Amino acid sequence: MRAGIAGLLPADPAAITTEHARHLRALGFTGASVFSGNPAQVSEAALRHARDVLAGEGIRVAQTNPTYPALVHPDTQQRAEGVRLAQRACHVARLLDAVYLLVRSGSVNPAGNYTPHRENHTPAAIERLIDSLRQVCAAAEHEGVLVGLECHVITTLDSPRRVREIIEAVGSPALRYNADPVNFVGSFAQAYNSTALVHEIFAELGPWMISAHIKDVSLGNRLVVHIDECVPGEGIFDLATFLRLYEQYHPEKYALIEHLPDSKVPAAKAHVDVLLAQLGLAWRV
């Protein structure tokens, strides 16, 4: 697998410099996530600048991450705007020469994309998401780019089986899955037995993986249920099994460390380096 990072770069593609790219390479990363913001507002010149600066130092845009309204939004106009911007993001991904475009379902909860709402898990939300993804994937096929689903237990993409069923229902060769296994931990039972969850993910979604996100999970000592992301190595998730299987299925693809303050990235990368060495594996360049 190849080492990537979601972080350590400015949110504005135009602000990415050679120094940023060299810092990533010094830490051993060869791929990065570029945040593209509102796809209708980011300039093509800024996108080309980011692509070229990173490429000049041997960094591939491993993923691009845009913003847009929820693809499961019950309001027809809001969902149409989400689809429109996600379609525009396909063009952004092509300009960046990104490995893939990260796409999320969003949430019916107006508080944010990763906030809970009972309607997220209803047949109606699933049908809206399938319809939205068909439209987005049509644009992706036209642009010649791939789409990777970002999934989470609190969204419509709430389990490996559900995600597979949605991918199959959409039926587009452009649609893939971004393997972020911690996002499927929805109970203490899954956290304590994450090895079984990892095997379930590969059994259901192994062939559709386009990329991976690396992080860890810990359980809070507060009432009642608190499941938190944490620095790799500081939690209880079976990262070793996940990395071993990911290398087995997709040895040439990126695995990106994410959701960390910049100051904690070096320690996280060092832990994953050691873990790979213990498995007899190494990052590919």
Key attributes of the depicted protein:
285 residues; alpha/beta; TIM Barrel; 8-stranded parallel beta sheet; globular
Summarize the structure.
The chain has 285 residues and is α/β, with parallel strands linked by helices. The protein has helices at residues 18-26, 44-56, 76-96, 123-143, 160-170, 188-192, 194-205, 239-249, 265-278, and strands spanning 2-6, 31-37, 60-66, 101-104, 147-150, 175-179, 209-214, 216-219, 227-230, 254-258. The chain has a single domain, classed as TIM Barrel.
Could you name the CATH homologous superfamily?
Divalent-metal-dependent TIM barrel enzymes
Number of strands: 10
Share of residues in strands: 15-25%
Q: State the CATH architecture.
A: Alpha-Beta Barrel
Q: Please indicate the count of domains.
A: 1
What distance lies between the first and last C-alpha atoms, to the nearest angstrom?
9 Å
Supply the number of helical segments.
9
Strand order of the largest sheet: 3-2-1-10-7-6-5-4
Low-confidence stretches: none
Written description of the protein model:
The protein is 41% helix and 18% strand. It has one domain (2-278): Alpha-Beta Barrel (TIM Barrel), CATH 3.20.20. With 285 residues, it is an alpha/beta fold.
Fold topology:
Layout: E1 2-6, H1 18-26, E2 31-37, H2 44-56, E3 60-66, H3 76-96, E4 101-104, H4 123-143, E5 147-150, H5 160-170, E6 175-179, H6 188-192, H7 194-205, E7 209-214, E8 216-219, E9 227-230, H8 239-249, E10 254-258, H9 265-278
Parallel strand pairs: 1-2, 1-10, 2-3, 4-5, 5-6, 6-7, 7-10
Antiparallel strand pairs: 8-9
Helix pairs in contact: 3-4, 4-5, 5-7, 7-8
